[in-house]
Design brief:
The chain is mainly alpha-helical. The protein has 2 domains: 1-165, no CATH class; 179-354, no CATH class. The chain is 75% helix and 3% strand. Strand 1 and strand 2 (46-48) form a beta hairpin. It is globular, with a radius of gyration of 21 Å. The mean pLDDT is 89.
C-alpha cells in the first residue's frame, strides 16, 4: 500500500512540476494568439491575419504553443528521473503533439503525459545499471538520452500510434453513418470528442469530420464543434473567477489567459488545469462541451469557417443559439467543478491524512 501511495505521489508531483514549467509558454502563446487573431478576419480557411506586425505576433504565440507540450512531458520526466530524462521526454512530447508514422497520428497532451512518465521510469531503470567508471561519465549525456529516445520513440510510433490511427479512422466512419440521423446525439458526440483530449487525436477526428462535411456544404456539425472548442477554457476561467478558494494564485492568473483563449476558440487553454486535476476537470468539461454541441445541433447553428469561439460570430448562422449554447455548456462545466472540486485547504488536509 505504501509503495502504491508513493507511486501516485510521485506522479502527482511530476504532473504539477510539468504544469508549472509549461504555464509561461501557455500564457505567452495564448495572449499573443488572442491579440493577433482578434485583428484578423474570418475566411473559408479560418481566421486570416492581414497586418504583418500581428502576423509576427501570431507566429510568436504559435511558437509558445508548440513549446507547451514538450515542456510538459520534459519536466514530468525530469521530476521523476532528473536531467538525463529531460531531452528525451521533450523530444517525445514534441513527437506526441505532431503527426507521425504512416497514419500521421497525433496524441496531444495525453500522449505527451504518457511519454513523460514512460521516459521518467525508463531513465530511472537505466540509472540502476552497473557500468564501468569510463562509461558512467557519458551515460547521462549520450547513452541514456539516445537509448531512451530510440526505444520509447519506436514503441510510440509502431505500437502506440498504429492502433490509435486505426481507431480514429473507425470513429470518422461511425460519425459519417450518423450524419442525417439524430442531430442531438451527433452534437453530443462531437462536443464530447472536442473536449476529451483538447487538440489530441479524438479532437482532431472531430475537426476532420466537420471539415469534410463543410466541403459538401453541411455546416451544422462544424457549428457544434466550434461551440465546444470554446467551452473548456471559458469554463476553467470562470471557475477560477468564481471559486477562488479552489485554485492557487498561479491557476487564477492562468484563468485570465484561458478566458481570452476561450473567446478565440483555443481549447488548449484548459490543458494545464486538466493535467493537475484530470479526474475532476475532464468529466466537467466533456459534459459541458457535449451539452453545448447538442444544443447547437438541435437549434440549427452553422459555423461557416473552420475556427471557433465568439470571434467568428459574424460568420455564424443562428448567432443567438451559438452564444447561448456556448454559455449554457460553460455554466454546466462551472457548476460541476463547483460541486466536485474541493477547496485547497480541504484537499491538502485529505492528502496529509493519506
Amino acid at each position: 500500500m505504501k509503495k502504491e501511495n508513493k507511486f501516485f505521489k510521485d506522479l502527482q508531483k511530476a504532473f504539477n512540476t510539468g504544469v508549472s514549467f509549461m504555464l509561461p509558454a501557455v500564457v505567452v502563446g495564448g495572449i499573443f494568439l488572442a491579440v493577433a487573431l482578434a485583428t484578423g478576419k474570418a475566411t473559408d480557411s479560418g481566421m486570416e491575419i492581414t497586418n504583418p506586425f500581428m502576423q509576427n505576433l501570431n507566429d510568436l504565440g504559435a511558437a509558445g504553443f508548440a513549446m507547451m507540450i514538450p515542456l510538459l512531458s520534459g519536466y514530468i520526466a525530469n521530476s521523476l528521473a532528473g536531467k538525463p530524462a529531460l531531452a528525451p521526454a521533450m523530444i517525445l512530447g514534441f513527437v506526441a503533439n505532431n503527426p507521425i508514422g504512416e497514419g500521421q497520428v497525433k496524441t496531444g497532451f495525453l500522449g505527451a503525459m504518457i511519454m513523460g512518465v514512460a521516459v521518467g521510469y525508463f531513465v530511472r531503470w537505466c540509472k540502476t545499471w552497473k557500468v564501468p567508471a569510463t562509461i558512467r561519465t557519458i551515460m547521462p549525456i549520450l547513452i541514456v538520452p539516445v537509448l531512451t529516445t530510440f526505444v520509447l520513440g519506436m514503441i510510440y510510433i509502431y505500437i502506440i500510434a498504429v492502433p490509435i490511427g486505426a481507431g480514429m479512422d473507425w470513429l470518422v466512419k461511425v460519425l459519417g453513418e450518423m450524419q442525417g440521423g439524430s442531430a442531438i446525439i451527433l452534437g453530443l458526440i462531437i462536443g464530447a470528442m472536442t473536449a476529451i483530449d483538447m487538440g489530441g487525436p479524438i479532437n482532431k477526428t472531430a475537426t476532420a469530420f466537420t471539415l469534410a462535411l463543410m466541403s459538401e456544404g453541411v455546416y451544422g456539425p462544424n457549428g457544434a464543434h466550434r461551440i465546444a472548442v470554446a467551452i473548456p477554457p471559458l469554463a476553467m476561467a470562470i471557475s477560477t473567477f468564481i471559486d477562488r478558494k479552489k485554485y492557487t494564485a498561479e491557476d487564477k492568473d492562468l484563468g485570465i489567459s484561458a478566458f481570452f483563449m476561450g473567446l478565440i476558440g483555443i481549447t488548449e487553454g484548459a490543458i494545464p488545469f486538466a493535467v493537475k486535476d484530470i479526474k475532476r476537470v475532464l468529466p466537467a468539461i466533456i459534459i459541458g462541451s457535449a451539452v453545448g454541441g447538442a444544443l447547437g445541433m438541435a437549434n440549427g447553428v452553422e459555423a461557416l469557417v473552420p475556427h471557433g469561439g465568439l470571434i467568428i460570430l459574424p460568420v455564424v448562422n443562428g448567432k443567438l443559439w451559438y452564444v447561448l449554447s456556448m454559455l449554457i455548456g460553460t455554466l454546466i462545466s462551472v457548476a460541476i467543478l463547483h460541486f466536485t472540486k474541493p477547496n485547497l485547504d480541504e484537499e491538502n488536509k485529505m492528502k496529509a491524512e493519506k
